[in-house]
Specification:
Elements (H helix, E strand, L loop, with lengths): L10 H6 L3 E6 L1 H8 L6 H5 L6 E8 L5 E7 L2 E3 L12 H12 L11 E2 L2 E2 L1 H4 L9 H12 L12 E9 L5 H9 L2 H9 L7 E9 L9 H12 L3 E6 L3 H6 L4 H15 L5 H4 L9 H33 L1 H5 L1 H13 L1 H7 E3 L5 E3 L4 H14 L3 H17 L3 H17 L10 H14 L5 H17 L6 H5 L8 H15 L7 H17 L3 H36 L9 H6 L5 H17 L3 H11 L7 H25 L17 E2 L5 E4 L6 E7 L7 E2 L11 E3 L5 E8 L6 E14 L2 H6 L6 E3 L2 E6 L4 E10 L3 E12 L3 E6 L11 H5 L10 E4 L6 E6 L4 E3 L3 E10 L7 E6 L5 E3 L3 E2 L14 E3 L2 E4 L5 E6 L8 E5 L2 E2 L10 H8 L13 E9 L4 E12 L5 E2 L6 E15 L2 E9 L7 E9 L5 E11 L2 E5 L10 H8 E2 L4 E10 L10 H5 L1 H15 ...
Parallel strand pairs: 1-4, 1-7, 7-8, 8-9, 16-24, 26-39, 35-38
Antiparallel strand pairs: 2-3, 5-6, 10-11, 12-17, 13-17, 14-15, 14-39, 17-21, 18-20, 18-22, 19-21, 22-23, 22-24, 25-27, 27-36, 28-34, 28-37, 29-36, 30-36, 31-32, 32-47, 33-46, 37-39, 40-41, 41-45, 42-44, 42-46, 42-48, 43-45, 48-49, 50-51, 51-55, 52-54, 52-57, 53-55, 56-59, 57-58
Amino acid sequence: MPRPTLPQKRDFVAKAFCPRILVLSSPAIADACAVNGCSTFADLLAPFGQDVSTQVTIQDSQGAPYFLDKVNVKFTTDFKIEKHKQPSRAEIDELVRMSVAGDASQTSVPFLTDNGVDADVLATDDIGAWAPWYTVFRQQWVNEMQASEHESFIHPVVCMLVASGSEEDPVEALRNLQSHAAISRVHSQSFSGTSVLLYYLLVHDGRDTGALQKIDQKFDQVRRAFGQNSSLLKINSNVELIEADNSDRGKISSIWSNNLLMSQPLVPTAMAEKAFGSMLTMRDVAALKESVKQMMVRSVVPHMQYMIRVLSDQTANQRRSIAGRLFSAGRRYFGASTKTSSTLVGVDGDVYFRYDSPEALMRKLADYSFMLKDFRFAQSVYQVARRDFQSEKAWKCYAGAQEMVGVCKLMLEIHASRAEFDSNFEDAVAMYFHKTQTPCQYLAMRSIVIYYELLKHNRLYSFAPGALLRTPSNMGALYGLISEQAAYAYMKLPRHPELRKFSFYVMIAGQAYKNSEIGALAQRCFCMVRTALRVSMQKSNTSRDTEVNQEYEAHGASSEGSTDTQCVTASSNWSSIDSFINHELGLQCISAQNYDEALQYFMALLSDDNISAKLQSKYLQELLQLFLERSDSTAEETKSETPQPVTLMELSIPTIDPCMTRVIMSPDLEGEDGIFEWRQGGAAPSRLANNALNTAANLCCSVGEDVAILLVVSNPLTIGITLNGFTLACDFKPVDNELLASGTTSPAFNVSSVASVVLEGGQTVMVSVTITPHRAGDLEIVGARYLLCDILPIYKPLRLPGKRLNDTSEQRISPTYSSDARLGFRVDPSFPRLEVFLDDFPDTLVSGSMHRASVRIINRGPLPCYNIALWLSHPSFFDVRSSRKGDSDADVPEDSGCGNVQGMYVYSDTIQEAEQVQVANVLQECSMFILAGQTSLPVSSNPTSSEDAVRSLHHLPKPIECLDPKETLTVPIWIRGDRVGAHTLRLAIGASMTRTTTTLTATTSCNMRSRVFDIDLVVTPSLRVNAFVRPSIRNPHERILGIEVENMQPTLDIELVQTTFSSGYYKLSPLYTPSSCASGTSDHQDRVRVGSHQTINLMYNASPYDSTADTAKTALEERAQPEMFTINALRQYIFSNEKPAKLPAPIELVYSNAVLGERGVDCVHSSLQGYISRSQASRRRNLLRGAYPLIPDKYLPVLFPLYETFGIDFVLFWSEVGGSRRSGHHSISGIDLGVPHDYIVEALNPPSKGIARTWLKDTMREREALIQSIADRSTMARRHERPLDVSMKLINVSSSASSGVASAFYLADIDITVYNHSWRHAYDFALDLISPTAISKLVPIGVRLDYSGSRSAWSWCGTTHHLMSVAPHGSESVRAQLACSSAGVIDIGLWELNVQAQQPDLQSLTPSYAPIPASIGGKYTSKNLECTLHPLQPCFVNITTN
């Protein structure tokens, strides 16, 4: 099967190792060649030896046919073997310099741009365009191949003898050529020897018109004399025909010109531009081409194929059998005389073989097979000959065989492992350089170049750097040329380009060019390294953006923003290379007096912070001196011209991080200033990440307001530097069109400057520059200006890219960032400018104590401020009172008329023991207060109520209308130590100029300029107050509440002033009265005063409060409105499409006061009640957020009330005895008396109708998660509660002795009452009375019958099983009788109560409280709906007749 056509990319190797034809011509031929611009007939034939189309089928070594489509042949005029002249370094440098010529103007490779690496250019196969001088050098180096004794490639295969038809006897002329000296040298010195083919050519010159009739006769004579290896060539040189074909002159001449430039690239330009083929026509050109083709097809190729068969037969034993190898070994060790007959010493001192020896014949066989492209057979022969060369220590021959083995493997395009071909070239190069008698630099470099070209053809670029770098470094410019190619190979690696290795080897090439004084190539290489390092760092920064930009993007920034020089110097691993390159480029520019470019390189030198301090000092001095020289030269050039302003330069030192730059408005004031978003729900105001004021900047200030710019300046060097006249460059865009049209010259702003900033080595300082704007507009900071060491003017831009854009595919491919305005601000006269001062805020407090402070707000702006708001992070720590204009911090007399006001408390002598007051039951947000402007108040239960009435109901301070310019607003604030510990309290003041309503409960947000303060407060303990509950034996509806008070003060006594309880159901009365202690002063003082580290207990009785209100209301409607509101609102929130929006109605709270001191504290009708309710609202909100995290904050006020019916809130007022006589109070919210209130779980069961249907799995899953979280919370929060309780009371005792019974016993009547503690359910119950023993079985006295120790036996008489029902908060009684054997105290508390809740009557619920019917028997039920109860404690009665 015919072989495929040889790829064009391998032609370089094929042409380098092609057959040679020795051309000898008679003198008459010389004239015919000269008229056509050729010195010899070989030159005339040279263009037609390239890619000769043979189109023949020949046989390989195995006899298999293969197709030989084309061959190459070279024509020579002489043959001789001379000693190889080793080129000197100067000659090599000159050769490289000549190869470069004018191509060095190409400053960089096409794949390397400032934007990165062009992948499309890298994908091209031809890299010769990247360094065209290498292609020229490669061709010139291979063309200078000389004939050598170790290979037959340069040896002629055929000798062409050429005679002219104008000669009288051309046969004699050809016979004379046979005795030419060159033929003799071929016979004696070449591999061909006497077997060389002689080819005879008769040329007819058309100018000889007389010989035209005899030319055929003469050619017949030649053929009869020399046989078939002869031919006739006619070239028409008639002048008339040439004139007729004058249009083809340029085409004909280019044939020889192009061939000359390809074969000899360094030929002089005049020689290449000479006119060739002046006497030839296109028919002559075709005749020349056909003559060469016929010679190759009919003579040369068959002759070479014949020689291959002959040589194959002659060397068959040597190649195939072991006998030949044993013979060679025996000859080597036992026959010395034979060795001298087959080996010789060449002209260069190396051992080679006689041309008729088997080793030489095998080399000739392999070379001929290679030239005919039978690479597989040639490889096998080279491998056999290689072993013989090695055994005879013919190292030059061995190196040549190794080289050709590797070439054959790569020409076969077998992509084997590297060891299969790389070791061949490695051994060949090593032998050429080190083993031969004279180092064969030419042959070694030829091997390296051939290997590299084959690797490029097979795209094995990963092997190329190792092959190229076998070039010795002492070869000057050639080493630089080869290193440059190795760098390109790293960029062609299959997986990814190695940009840094490319930079390294290009830098080495540049240094080699510099040492060889090829400045153009050296500067080109150094510039490429600089560009490559910049691209490498940009690539590293881009890959690092996926990690660090998350934090920056959250603030609207990115990790980029530095200058190009900073990008290059960021590489810590390659900084020394960068410094070396910059220094070399700078020195070259100085020598060329290019001061501007040199200055840039020396400025880049200082970007490297890894160099030593000595070098940093040296480079800094050189930079300053260079700037002075540049200034002097510029001054000389512009002496007669108009002086130009000083050009500011960009330098990487010192470093200024734009991301760390801070813009602070009114820096003299405390607190954090900015534009904040104030949201509903009491959330903390958040600084706006994006511009919300429709301005070009995120920040705003007023006209005339000082703005401080804080910059972090770092010195990366190890030596100290000084910055003089440090200031900022700003851009200002006015918005006042009138001033802009009038062309006012007044400055729009003033920028301060810092006289001197001293930076030691590695030091970082904070530099503050103040900007004062005078006109409205947009001002942006664009850079910093300063004098480095008071000499070099520097400008450093401050750029901040914004968020990464990811909208389009182009933005996703290449990083694109939006504009950033964090270094700019808007100057707006209408922007609020308030000065806020915190007066007398304490650092420490004792728990519960109150401290008077105030907030002063001064309007420094030119316009009134209509909206001012206050936000508190810990509402329970602050009590905000109504503000007033002026500097006075006295409270507005809100509590006047309520009694004697002392501090925060209002004392009164007429404090009622129990008082029922209607209060708002809304879980209001108490973190934000409106100090100025209009406010949207919470919904009132009575639509006709006035604004003041609603404000009084919700205990909100009254705001002022507006704050005029230069006016002062004073806000009194009481600070209370609510919790023990160290706290950071945040206080924010926000203001805006617009006349809009600031809504406390709105669903929209409001943007205001705000100033935020952090207040550190440490609260130390004063009292520790705990509550505990005990059941009441007297009445099951009542509870005993105990308050344990412990004084934690180390030295001071504390006097208890008053206790106040508030509840929607219970009234609490002390188990003692203060009047009972009036008889003894000491007893009274012991009761109300708590000594240091002492504890007292206060006991109270909690009983239902009997209201004088309308008794027609049912208990459910009157008592349980908050609980019913929560059940229905929560069920609606879970199961309905319409979310609840109605707020809970006010609640009637019962305030129970117990005055323990001389006077009481009015906490019902004073502003103190508002603070207490806000504190409770804050605690309840936090509790609900933790208990129900899946419910958003905005729904908490419409789902849960502030107060529950059966909860108790407790406040204890106290004052210190002695010392500073501080006063305060402690509170406990939500005291649970153990009354069943497990009602929230009832809202979790879906209603029988009205469920909002959804087909979305996510929505259903969210609903189930919410229900389960509420159910889990209810399960964890349940206490041991009993919906019913049993009370037994002895009514009457009678004895059976009066009736004459022998064994007397006693009958007792017992009244049993069952109490229902539940407000929600009516119960059906079964009461079973249990007897300890039967009445008919009497036991001896002394036997213990029950755990009470009674000696009497007793039993219930009559009916012991009772079925009854009890209403909510109701009771049912039954009369029972027991019989006892003897008198005494017995325990009758033996019973069992089975309880089951009744079906609720939905008709009893008002429509407002029952929007959705509940379902009974659902998945989620209260444990109080069905249970079994037993006695918790014994019930002793005294059985006696007395």
